[in-house]
Amino acid sequence: MSNRLKGFKFKIHTAFYFADNLGYDAILVEGLNATTINFLVDGIPYIINIEDETEFINDLLEIKVDDWNNNGYIFFTEDAWSWNIELVYDDGIIVSGGFGSFPKNFPVFMDLLHEKYGLKYSKLDSDKKIKGKVRKFEWWSEETEIIPYRDL
User: I need a surface site. Which of 23, 30, 73, 136 has the fewest CB within 10 A?
Assistant: First the structure.
């Protein structure tokens, strides 16, 4: 059964986005012949072509993005990232976001965008070396508080 994509907005920003422009911003664009998601990756435009909207939606549902609906994820840390996603399709809507933390399966979502749909990587995705130690960004913390998204 066909499932149409009606809306997609997504962003990840650093606490210093106003100064560094690092992160992702995305919005759905429906043209006459193509559906695309237009991204800014670290401030540089990048386009993902969505050739099969039903497949894209099914890919997201298969990795349980719908479990995020109406949840907000908070873990207050220094230099926290903020993010949100709005996905609207024929059969539903998913709205979620957070500050300093993400759902446990968020890396799978990002891998899907990068590996299957060809999204360019942000500088945020690279490991950082601080004082001789490689520091990987922790997508999830056991101290994450999950609250209703509207309270975020």
Answer: 136
Q: Which two tokens stand for residue 117?
A: 């749909």
User: Where does residue 141 rank: exposed (0-12), middle (13-18), buried (19+ CB within 10 A)?
Assistant: middle
CA atoms within 13 A on the CB side of 55: 9
Distance of CA 143 to the CA centre of its chain: 21
In whole angstroms, what separates CA 65 from the centre of its chain? Answer: 10
Q: What is the dihedral of CA 62, 65, 67, 72, to 10 degrees?
A: 170
Read off φ and ψ for residue 34, nearest 5 degrees.
Answer: -150, 150
Q: Which pTM was predicted?
A: 0.81
What φ, ψ does residue 90 adopt, rounded to 5°? -50, -40
